[in-house]
Amino acid sequence: MCGIVGILGRHQVAPILIEALKRLEYRGYDSAGIATLDDGHLVRRRSVGKLVNLSDLLVRDPVRGESGIGHTRWATHGRPNETNAHPHQAGSVAVVHNGIIENFRELRAELEATGTGFETETDTEIIAQLCNRELKAGRSPVEAARATLARLRGAFALCFLFDGERDLLIAARRGSPLAIGYGEGEMYVGSDALALGPMTHRICYLEEGDHAILTRTSAEIFDADGQRVERPIADIPQENFHAEKGRFRHFMAKEIHEQPSVIAQSLQRYLGSDLRLSEFEERLDFTACERIVLVACGTANYACHVAKYWFETLARMNVEIEIASEFRYREPPVGPETLGIFVSQSGETADTLAALRYVRAHGGRIVSVINVETSTIARESDVALPILAGPEIGVASTKAFTCQLLVLAMLAITAGRQRGKLDAAECTRLAEALSGVPGLIAQALALEEDVAETAKSVARARDVLFLGRGPMFPLALEGALKLKEISYIHAEGYASGELKHGPIALVDQEVPVVVLAPYGPLFEKSLSNMEEVIARSGEIVLLSDANGLAMSGGKAAHTLELPSVEALTGPIVYAIPLQLLAYHCAIQKGTDVDQPRNLAKSVTVE
Ligand code: F6R
To answer: What does pTM read for this prediction?
Structure first.
């Protein structure tokens, strides 16, 4: 949340800052701002709302300068308005900040007691004011920044720009990610490598507690103890920087349609032509653990819920699902017998990372299922398994969810084989089923027109229920979350069997009920639940296959015919119509699909 960028360049920096912020806008978009050194002096331009407002402001009121910092905000402290927008300036220092300063009240009181006045409600202004106090006391910019950093508690990434210092940026990281980009006689700082992609592919990630002193030709990095350190500079592959919509109107649509190809890529890497999952076999040992704890937030957490069904049925293992923000504070018993599996698209989610560190501190083993391979969660894991979804820019997670499911399915098969619960023939059969998933997804995508038609009716509702049984229950939760997030329609997911224990009281002709029911052993039970809804005038949207739809007797108001699936492939395939339904409801309602209100892609604060 919040994107930050810093540039020591050789050209006018304002348009370059804006380009970089565009690539970071998925991290927050309630206000934006830049500061540059115009003729050596700090000048700022800030604007509330989307980045386009800041671009327009810069046309009306341009700034010059070749050094600058920029910020796109997701508000934590203080309303989204121009005053609270970053960069924050005090005297001769300007700061951009991602994260939260936990001791800001105490620091603010201390500064106010000595006569410092504050302009904003933000925690960030404290940083600028502290640093300015040090500068006024005669310290150099580097000393002042260091003294300031020493006073801060919390999780943050920061970039400082100083009046009169055309060849200096100071960057610091504690908790929130920060990358340094190396150019030709230029140097950059960004919340992620994506922001820096058009400028350089040579990227170095700061480690926890690091700060860096940058000039156009050098980057000196110091660790948490103040020792000078070298951090590796990686050449990031070109494809990691692609953040274009192509022929699609929204990133979300593009990412939904990319699923057959990204799933195929993941299958190629992990399953291989021999269908053997050799990489998983070599890197993981499920015989050594007694218990699996799957930890994640949001959509990634629902992927964990699905995986629990697979680990239990295929590997007969004890599996617990944890919401990271609860797990980290509950002090659950964890020991060397525990295998923690942490699932995160960004690999930077603050709660998931804290939960990972808890398991590590208590002797558990750490496997992560991540999309961003250079992320903190990946780096702090014993084994990091990339899901290979490519950059996901739409705030609502789509392709990352199905790629997470695929990797978790392959993990469950590996566990089943290693623990002697699956024989070679069964493993091959399951692997063959997975290798058919890209084709099944393509069939599901072909339903888009029907889904768009159904969405016309669903989008009129104020409340929507989603029902599913077995591994379709977590899909019901995910379908409801997707709809809420981007169309702002209130939606809840329930296990179908729970309907009559309360939620059925909500059902009337105004409440569409989306039933996820592939034909199988539990289908007739789902049918009974559907009848209960119909008896109360509820409008059913039934997602099933040819057999299921034939058995349903034409009672559903809307039907979507999906290909036949099995327990392992069903959740991946049924995710597609749910994503499309949310997308087309949002289109009907005219909401902002890629940047829904109040949300941000990468949740790096608690
Ligand atoms: C929903 C969504 C969020 C994320 C959650 C975890 O569409 O995107 O619920 O799934 O914030 O994020 P990661 O996977 O980056 O840890």
So the answer is: 0.87
